[in-house]
Amino acid sequence: MAAPINIQSQTSFAFSWRMLWRDWRGGELRILAIALIIAVTSVTAVSFFIDRVERGLNQQAAELIAADLVISSSRQINADYIQAAKQRGLKLANTTQFRSVAVAKEQPQLVEVKAVTQHYPLRGELRIADVLYGEERATQAIPARGEVWVEPRLLQALNLKVGEPLQLGARSFTITQVLVYEPDRGGDMFSVAPRVLMHADDVAATKLITTGALVTHRLLLGGKRTAIDDYRQYVKQQLQPGERLLSVKEGRPELRAALDRAQHFLGLAALISVLLAGVAVATAARRFAQRHLDTSAMLRCLGATQRSIIRMFSLEMLWLAFIASSIGCALGLLTQMGISQILDELLLITLPAPSSRPLVLGYATGVILLLGFALPPLLALKNVPPLRVLRRDVTGAPVHAGLVYLGVLLSMGVLLYWQVGELQLVVYVMLGTLATVLILAIAAYGLIKLMNRLRQRVGVAWRFGLANIARRPASSVIQIVAFGLGIMVLLLLSTVRNDLLNSWQTSLPPEAPNHFLINVQPDQIAEIQAFFDQQGVATPQLYPMVRARLMRINDRIVSTNDYQSDRARHMVTREFNLSWAAEPQVDNTIVAGQWWREADHGKNLLSLEAKLADTLGIQLHDTVSFDINGTLREFTISNLREVDWDTFNINFFTVVPPGVLEQDPASWVTSLYLSPEQKRQLSQLVKRFPNVTVIDVAVIMDKVRSIMDRVVLAVEFIFLFTLLAGLAVLYAAIQANQDERRFENAVLRTLGARKPVLLRGLIAEFITLGALAGLLAGLAASALAWVLSVQVFHFPYQFNPIIGLAGIGFGIAIVGIAGVLGTRTVLTQPPVVSLRQGT
Amino acid sequence: MGSQQSAPFVQAIQLGKRVITSEGPLTILDDISFSIPIGTSVAVVGESGSGKTTLLGLLAGLDVPTHGQVIINGQDLGALDEDGRALLRADTIGFVFQNFQLLNGLTALENVMLPLELANAANPREQAAEFMARVGLGDRLSHYPNQLSGGEQQRCAMARAFAAHPKLLFADEPTGNLDQHTGKRIIDLLFDLNREQGTTLIMATHDEHIAELCDRRLHLDEGLLIKPDESSSDVGC
Are A795 and A646 in contact, with CB atoms under 8 Å apart? Predict the structure, then answer.
């Protein structure tokens, strides 16, 4: 006699576990599991990485500024600050940073010099090695006088060894150590030039710091917390424009901002995979539910209540979510190591070991994804009437599609909010994604209809293939959109990125200046012009610049608090370079007011770049006051200019008429085009004028490109999961139609269709699907690239047909192969078996 | 088969089922009344479309009547909700179907284990294996339904039905999908097991020979119960 079957929780726990195992063995759960693993892997990989960087930043906050508090200034640190720090018993160290050109073996190389005093760094430590790639060790010392420690890449760039000399300005130094790690290096995350560390007392001998040179002075402070807090209060009141306070709390604002962006971007990238995985889960779950109608009816017939059926399937799904999430988390951990490896050089901080925090997100993603996307169709199983065991045509209330989509949207929103944490952004992204998907879906539907028209003109195999696509339009659209999205983001990252860079480069005139000379002293102008004259280079025009701080706009004292935007805040605190000129530069356009006449020379007028004026809220005829070399000077805005910065010609935000600043300390700058042969003469120039810094645009561009390459590689890594998720969607869709396909093929074979014909039909179907997805991806990527270049970067975009072709090729290869592989069992099963099993 | 004239175990009182079709209401069963004592075997006979399967569905509580009552073991099915009927089924009722209704993802043994597991029975595997041996499938435990012949599938289904020791067994054309020879062996097995367990059996069939093996017969024609005529062994109304 059987006991009443009211499956109690304990029983359903064990029973659901057994059901899980049985369904797994039957292959019913594979796609669900794979889709979950893909989603969880991509989410946790990003999360592990961001978490490590974030904790690294927090743990090493003091180390990252090499002190407890730092005052950064473009001028010599105010002696009062130093005095006040000493009074409070704080430990002090100074650093002086500037760019210069070092010469070794006749080769010039742009370097970033950092001159430090005893006790640097106050927090964290330097790590050095005796030889390139030698064993590194920590040190409390700083370079002795006459010695420099250099970064490995300088040794590589100039083919140098430890012990060899390096010329810096007027003085020669001996390289005594390889500088492997410098705690506060991070401020120059995207630094172009390698570091040269030297003793502060050697700076004067190099004669590199001349009037108007671009130098960053830092006062590093360390001590007890109370003393530091007290000092912070004091110094905050004293800060002048151009002076900045860096504290442990702010850590590395640039890295934190980059981290925020990375979190948003990588998080969203991972979320696209999650979304696609969700589509795969929903598709697979529908089939799962379909195939479990009989099980449910039988269980009901055997006396299981509706509640126990829901409980059992829910538990089975939870088991699956748990197992798949565990695997996903483990893979996420591995993937994260890959990302860290790729971005290692850019981060310049030591990452702590991964924490367990991302696991929460991983498991939550798994559970939410599975429940959100799979539960709605499964819930319908409770409605299966037990009568189905007698009448197969009875299916009960169908799954309400609205319920499914609501579940999908809600799950997506929750996940997105979790990743991004900003409601507004979540809404924008969701609407944007929906719009993109909708546009892609409509386009895909159109293409399918168009393709279907070709059916009359092709052979029997292709007709089968095209008919299959057209007959299941919803499923075909889902597959095309899923793959289209995956291919689109990869195209955008690979091909289009290069296209954008190339479009920009070709928009430059061929002989656009490719070198900048800065820090030229007034008495060197004639000599330098003569030097280039000798080399056969068109005599460069040099422009003066005088450093100044913006103090007032009209009667208002300038303060960062007046501005909202980061750019405005940055602009008001930076040092301005005031230049003077009788005529505007040829690439400047006056958009308001008038350029000065000769009669105006000597008057305190100012020509301001239009965008900056807009940013700072300065109008024509306003007055602005600058602190120039200690005296306050007032200027009236006489005109606003638009400047084409892309030309690489020397341009200034602020220009005054001749006869105003000539008596003030100025340095001169120029830009010029040098052919590869002329470039070789640069070392002579550096030797003759050691204080002059030469900046090679090509080197900077290369650096930018290599940084972009790295970042893109990391992002591509994440988008690889998008493609995998696309594959999961394809397989889920294939599985969903598998029984139908089997039956149709059996019928066709019974009617005499040979296997090769059926195979060609399958190939035709998936090649077409892949081509459509690729074509759509190519079009969408090109459209996005066009929007980016014209709307965001403002240069004409050259459409590249390769993108479309690459998309199509890629789509055909992946979807074609995967599709045929996924469906080939349809052909291997004897038709009689398929017919016996019915549809 | 020895039937006992005791209190009715299954009772139908003015049972009717009507469905709404596009051409108006359609009466599938009309005013059916009978009672079946415990341990009796009853054949429900009639042409295709006479309402046999519908009657079985109503009696088993798989479907609800438009009017009338079904009383099983003193319990009015109309007074129970869907889950209540499920519990009654779990406790009392077993099934054998024309199309076997084995779950394809499970092995033969697992199919038989299913009701035992759901009832949280002790040693479901051993009990199920015992019944598999009893129906002659002791060497087919790990086979999947699609690896079994039709006759084997039906034997497996019977093992599943009897493994839970139901008091009442419904069989819907159990030999409908089988050849004559196999069908006979299945029926023999069915009656053997039925006798062993003293189960009350209600079987829909259109095979007169099988019907004759039953203690009683219910003859359906276009949804109406034909009054017992020549056979005194027919169920009284």
Answer: yes
Q: Say if residues A227 and A90 touch (Cβ distance below 8 Å).
A: yes
Top residue of B48, B63, B104, B118 to mutate, by most chain A CBs within 10 Å, is B118
Where residue A662 falls (left for φ over 0; alpha for ψ -120 to 50; beta otherwise) is: alpha
Q: How many domains in chain B?
A: 1
CB atoms within 10 A of CB A94: 18
- The radius of gyration of chain B's CA atoms, rounded to the nearest angstrom, is 18
Cα separation, A655 vs A638, in Å, equals 10
Q: Read off the amino acid at residue A568.
A: A
Pairing of strands B24-37, A556-557: unpaired
Using the beta-carbon criterion (under 8 Å), do B103 and A389 form an inter-chain contact?
no
Which residue has tokens 């409770």? A382
pLDDT tens profile A801-830:
888 888 899 899 988 888 888 888 777 776
Q: pLDDT, tens digit, for every residue of A609-666?
A: 999 999 889 999 999 999 887 788 999 999 999 988 767 778 889 999 999 998 888 8
Using the structure block, give the residue that is written with the tokens 């301001």: A608
> Rounded to whole angstroms, how far apart are CA atoms B157 and B113?
11
CATH number of the structural domain spanning residue B156: 3.40.50.300
pLDDT at residue A252 is higher than 70:
no
- Identify the burial level of A538 via C-beta atoms within 10 angstroms of its C-beta, where 0-12 means exposed, 13-18 middle and 19 or more buried: exposed
Whose tokens are 């060899």? That residue is A164
* pLDDT value at residue A440: 86
Q: What is the per-residue DSSP string for A707-730? A: HHHHHHHHHHHHHHHHHHHHHHHH
Q: How many CA atoms lie within 13 A of B175 on its CB side?
A: 21
Cβ partners under 8 Å of residue A18, min gap 6? B117
CA dihedral A249, A252, A253, A258 (to 10 degrees): -130
pLDDT digits (tens, 9 = 90+) for A751-774: 666 778 788 888 888 898 899 889
Instruction: Verify whether the Cβ–Cβ distance B90 to A15 is below 8 Å.
Output: no
Altogether, the residues listed in chain B come to a count of: 237
Extents of the domains making up chain A: 1-64+254-421, 66-247, 436-509+697-839, 538-672
Largest CA distance in chain B: 53
Whole-angstrom distance, CA of residue A577 vs CA of residue A282: 60
Tell me the DSSP string of A215-242.
Answer: EEEEEEEE--HHHHHHHHHHHHHHPPTT
Q: Is B84 part of any domain?
A: yes
Sorting pLDDT into bands at 50, 70 and 90, what band is B12?
A: very high
Which two three-digit tokens encode residue A121? 């760094």
What residues pair up with A609 in beta bridges, in sequence order?
A641
Q: What is the nearest CA distance from B125 to chain A, expressed in angstroms?
A: 13
Q: How confident is the model at residue B214 (pLDDT cuts 50, 70, 90)?
A: very high
Q: What is the pLDDT of residues A303-361, one digit of tens each?
A: 888 888 888 888 888 999 999 999 999 999 999 888 888 877 666 567 788 888 889 88
Using an 8 Å CB-CB cutoff, list chain A residues near B93: 303
Contact partners, residue A801, CB within 8 Å, separation at least 6: none
Note whether residue B75 is domain-resident: yes
Q: Which of A2, A3, A305 sits opposite B86 (nearest CB)?
A: A305
Q: Does a structural domain hold residue B125? A: yes
- Predicted confidence at residue A831, as pLDDT, reads 64
- Say if B55 falls within a structural domain: yes
Alpha carbon distance B157, A298 (integer Å)? 12
Query: Can you give the residue range of the structural domain that contains B185?
Result: 8-225
Residues B57, A302: C-beta atoms closer than 8 Å: no
Does this complex have an ipTM over 0.85? no
User: Tens of pLDDT along B16-37?
Assistant: 999 888 888 888 899 999 999 9
Residues of B within 8 A of A391 (CB-CB) are 53, 57
Half-sphere exposure of A683 (CA within 13 A, CB side): 12
